[in-house]
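Predict the holo structure. Ligand: glycine.
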Amino acid sequence: MQVLVIGGGGREHALVWKIKQSPKVKKIFCAPGNAGTAEIAENIPIVADDIDNLLEFAVKNDIGLTVVGPEQPLVKGIVDRFEEKGLRIFGPNARAAELEGSKSFSKDIMKKYGLPTAEYKAFNSANSAAEYIKIKNCPLVVKADGLAAGKGVLLCQTADEALAAVDSIMGKRSFGKAGDQIVVEEFLEGEEVSVLAFSDGQTVLLMDSAQDHKAAYDGDKGPNTGGMGAYSPAPIFTETMRQKVRDKIMLPMIRAMQQEGRPYKGILYAGLMLTKTGPQILEFNARFGDPETQPLLIRMDSDIIPIFEACIDGTLDKCPLQWKSESSVCVVMAAKGYPDSYEKGKSISGLKDANALPGVVVFHAGTKEQDGEVLTQGGRVLGVTAIGKDTATGISRAYEAVKKIEWEGIHYRKDIGHRASS
Ligand code: AMP
Ligand code: GLY
């Protein structure tokens, strides 16, 4: 079978790497890919949300399965368009992907079906949001309703900060159309965990747990990023908690979507806050997490292709999913300045030496190959991932590999995995 993977980040390199191990796969294309995917697949110069050209490519090239990485094409309806042409594609259709595409839609469903989530209210005018903020206790969280590349969530300690957040999203339109509506919600305290599950619309198959580090700097300080590192499993996520999350959150959500006439196939990713009173849902995403996918897939023992196919065919109840017992850690190496503006085009050295270390795979994110050199091409540049007998071994292996890699202006966190190993 020929497979097309859509996207060009660390998550997509990890997907291509895992798919490549399947005996069912003859060739992989990645659109647009990066310098890492170019080594194990054929990169196609089509951006991830150019649905017309992706569709034309898939039809012409006998693509037997398409796997979508990022959220934008899902929310724009890539699955609907491919299915209309009879193509097999893994991911939710546009109506199901709204679970990530609109925070107010997602919160309304959670409320309607009694799923645990922070108390909230959605607004489409700044004045009514301001009235609400004045009567609520702080801290509060103000969120742009639509997709904002992980940046549309503002944690506000005081009412003044919350009012400024409303003005930034609705007045200054810092996130464009994503800020046509906002959600203001109660602030939850606890430890975060990411729970990803495969779904065929009826059955959910939970992956092992993962935890990411969102803040830019050590000690969870600084601005939120897409994720500066991740590890799996998350020891805080016990078997009892896992069953609770499956039965009280993941399955009820899939049933709710079915009842709403929006059957959900693909990855259901729940961002959870483990609070004193139990797990609460921060958000649902309609795709694999980045960087959680890198440490998850390096631990996945089963062939991933039959799982994708079972999700499409509605046969997930018969599908095994095995994990390696070892632990894994992914350290993101970013460009100086990320998540704000950063430089591109710096030459990267040491990749081969890093990759040769035991248990290490260097997943590329924002990289490109030019004249035999690998250059930086994005904010998050590499996801140095290592597996070992426990988290401490994963950490030391990953950082040993990180030390071999150089370019001008590297930034990475030195404390990835600390919560799981202490
Ligand atoms: P979201 O995109 O909604 O998951 O929000 C991004 C990040 O903001 C989350 O990973 C949390 O760290 C934080 N966050 C979101 N909602 C809340 C909340 N209600 N209480 C505390 N932190 C939150
Ligand atoms: N790592 C967070 C996300 O993928 O949304």
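The radius of gyration is 21 Å. Residues 118, 141, 143, 153, 155, 185, 187-188, 192, 214, 271, 282-283 surround adenosine monophosphate (ligand 1) (CB under 6 Å).
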